[in-house]
Amino acid sequence: MPSPLEAGLIRQGASVLAHAIAAGEVSAEEVTRAHLDRIAEVDDRVHAFLEVVGESALASAVEVDRARASGEQLGPLAGVPIAVKDVMAMRGVPTTCGSRILEGWRPPYDATVVERLRAAGVVILGKTNMDEFAMGSSTEHSAYGPTRNPWDLERIPGGSGGGSAAALASFEAPLAIGTDTGGSIRQPAAVTGTVGVKPTYGGVSRYGLVALASSLDQAGPCARSVIDAALLHSVIAGHDPRDSTSIDAPVPDVVAAARRADVRGLRIGLVRELSGDGYQAGVSQRFAEAVAILEGLGAEVVEVSCPHFDYALGAYYLILPAEASSNLARFDGMRYGLRVGDDGERSVEDVMSLTREAGFGAEVKRRIMIGTYALSSGYYDAYYGQAQKVRTLITRDFAAAFEHVDVLVSPTTPTTAFRIGEKVDDPLAMYLNDIATIPVNLAGNAAMSLPIGLAPEDGLPVGLQIMAPPMADDRLYLVGAALEAALLDRWGHLLIEEVPSL
């Protein structure tokens, strides 16, 4: 059992911990030990982590304490622990992307996001579980077993970044890094009662992020409150010359926006195409209540139509597999990771084939085949080319909407967390979980999911999605923090405090 001190520390948010460490009320080492003890206590049931780097984490925490004692100026999150999705390269630490094919690979370099965390004194606890190569909506497609939702261990924590979200919801870490290709930060946030942000495409460096779909992937912050997400966002965002898609422009002041938390005079658009049929009644109910709260805070709410959103799912599941089939071609067993059948007699082609057969899971193989077909001679224009045209129309829908409103809102997911195994053999049913999140990735916009209550049918968390124009990420935090504060007044605590004890 954790000590009273440890129990208190793991329940605190990142901003509270950072203040306590800076004030000398607690050491970074104590905070880190408390979270490592929590991982040891509950992760055998949650399975949020694939790799815990306890010794390294404690060494980093001790260094933060030493630097603070010597009077060095430290960042606002120095000494606060974090969990990192296992799609980010981390020097000397196994990086598997949830796949057997990368088993044993220890990168010789850090991703830019990891570099920035280290430079800010953030303490990395380890690498979190995920759907293999970020292909999935439930973290059931991990080669290392599923992660479980702390609200109900028989249910999924979302995907592909279910490990990061579950680590937050089970109080194993106060912060986490996720990546979002079609909703993989926001959908897990919604079903675990946490906060997840997909920054503007190019707003956070992708250098060292193992690519799924290069025009869609985006790393972002995961936290238990809007201000905590904002603080983490400010640490990891900014231009990186090593990433050709990185935006060379000032990062919006997301922390100031979160602290301002005022929606008076803002115009908020309800997306007609992201509601109605297919949405769980309790999800729709909580969403309507949250919108009414925003109106009560002084925002003007209007309905907006984005007609091409209806085609987003089909376009996405051509563009993503096409890019994935190209990106995953590098995993051949020749240079790193798994190698099968290399007995000195088989050809290189045979070893590659055997390695990929053994190393890739069923969902990855499915998408590689779809993508290769969509890019093949005679089908490129009919499938991939048409999907890119739809992508352009979706981007125009967003641009037209943002001429009239400041942000758009919708439910983050059509349902609450479903049971493990319920949809794993039905790919289309699984894909539909991302129906509300995918349009943002296709257009490159910024979006956030934050918890707005529990569905009355099952007592599970519901998320609201806020969408903003490119490089207007601060609007997410402005609206999100205002809504969170109103809900906090109503509940008397953050929703996450209601998660059942493990």
Structure characterization notes:
This protein is of the alpha/beta class and 502 residues long. Helices cover 40% and strands 12% of the residues. The protein has 17 helices and eleven strands. It has helices at 4-10, 14-22, 28-46, 54-69, 112-119, 162-169, 186-192, 226-236, 254-260, 281-296, 312-327, 348-359, 362-374, 381-401, 427-431, 438-443, 473-491; strands at 49-52, 81-85, 123-128, 175-179, 195-198, 219-223, 267-271, 300-304, 407-411, 446-454, 461-468. An eleven-stranded mixed β-sheet has the order 1-3-2-4-6-5-10-11-9-7-8, with helices on both faces. The longest helix is centred in the last third of the chain and has 21 residues, at 381-401. It is globular, with a radius of gyration of 21 Å. The termini are close together. The mean pLDDT is 96.
Main attributes of the structure:
11-stranded mixed beta sheet; globular; alpha/beta; single chain; 11 strands; 502 residues
